[in-house]
Structure formats: C-alpha cells, structure tokens
Amino acid sequence: MADHSRIHAYRGLGIDPGLAHTGYAVIGSFVNGGELCAWGSITTSSRFSIQERLNTIYEQLQKLIVQWKPDLLALEDVYVYNMYPKAAIQLGEVRGVVYLAASHHNISIRMIRPTEVKSCLTGSGRASKGEVQLSVRRILNIDRPIKPDHASDAAALALIAMSRSGYYQW
Q1: In a domain, 4, yes or no
Q2: For strand 34-43 and strand 21-29, is the pairing parallel, antiparallel, or unpaired?
Q3: DSSP 8-state code for residue 16
Q4: What is the pLDDT of residues 62-86, one digit of tens each?
Q5: 149 is a domain residue
Q6: CATH number at residue 124
Q7: Quick one: DSSP state of residue 76?
Q8: Per-residue confidence (pLDDT) for residue 83, from 0 to 100
C-alpha cells in the first residue's frame, strides 16, 4: 500500500451517507489548489442483515481513514421525509457508524446541509446535482464525470468543509 501520509497540506474526507450506497471522496489540498485523490461508493446488499451492512460500511471507512489520514470529515446533514420513518432510522444508523469511525481516529466532523453545498458551489440553493458536479470538476480541474453520483456529492461536501476550515481556497 502506498504511503499517503503527507503529500498534501490537508485532506478532507466527504461522506454522503446511505445504507445501500455510502458515497465517499478524499480531497487533498496543496498550497495552491488541490486534487480528488479517491472516490467511490461503499455498497451493501439488502440480502444481508442491517448489522452486516453497517459493519461493511464501518470497515470500509476505517480503511479509507487509515490509508488517507484525513484532517477532517464532512458529513451530509440530511433531511428525511416524515413519511419514510424506516429510511430515517437506517440513515441514523449509518451516520452513527460514520461518527464512530471518525471518533476512533480523532477526526473532527463538519455537518453540511445539501442546500449549503449547492449555494456555495453554484450560487443557488436549488442547483441540480449536475450543476454541483460541474462546479466541483471546475474547481478540481477534472475533465470527466465523477461517478457514482454519491461520490460526486461527497467530493462537494469535502470541498465546502475544507474551504470553511481554511484548508482549501478556490
């Protein structure tokens, strides 16, 4: 495994939580600019128990944290509709696993609402996912789409959290 201990001034890990798909993205900053280091989605199957699925998310987050040593973790502060109480509970369980993984490594968590991300990156709190992704790609100088969408959302979260913490400027 490559040593990623300090090729960047700072690193942020963005997390877009979900039981089926938890998007992640690692952003590394330099004195000027930065880069998207790693991204993807931790996927779990509904064929497995909640316990097994949460454990998969936890173990994969642990691996990401050990590999990339982020300075902060940006977590989407999600809104859940009242008509989907089971989804709210599952999302809370996933968020708890994220908190636990960050806590085990003494990583501070920044909560960011989706409307904040949209507003900061595009100027509109009602921007589409595509508009947000284009802004992320422009800022990080990426010429191809960031897939899956959960990873793109996680990259946007990491960018905003790093910017607010003074770790990244564009």
Answers
A1: no
A2: antiparallel
A3: E
A4: 999 999 999 999 999 977 777 788 8
A5: yes
A6: 3.30.420.10
A7: E
A8: 76
DSSP per residue, 100-120: HHHHHTT-EEEEE-HHHHHHH
Contact 155, 132 (CB under 8 A): no
Asked whether residue 121 is domain-assigned, the answer is: yes
Per-residue model confidence (pLDDT) at position 105: 97
Cα torsion angle, 12, 17, 19, 24, sign: negative
Query: Looking at the 3D structure of the chain, how many domains does it have?
Result: 1
The mean pLDDT values, 10 residues at a time, for the chain of 170 residues are 66 97 96 92 98 98 97 90 83 97 98 94 92 96 95 97 92
Q: From the centroid of its chain, how far is CA 74? A: 6
**Residue 140's domain spans which residues?**
10-164
Separation of alpha carbons 155 and 26, rounded Å: 7
Q: Please count the CA atoms within 13 angstroms of the CA of 87 that sit on its side-chain side.
A: 11
| DSSP letter, residue 77 | -
The pLDDT value given to residue 5 = 53
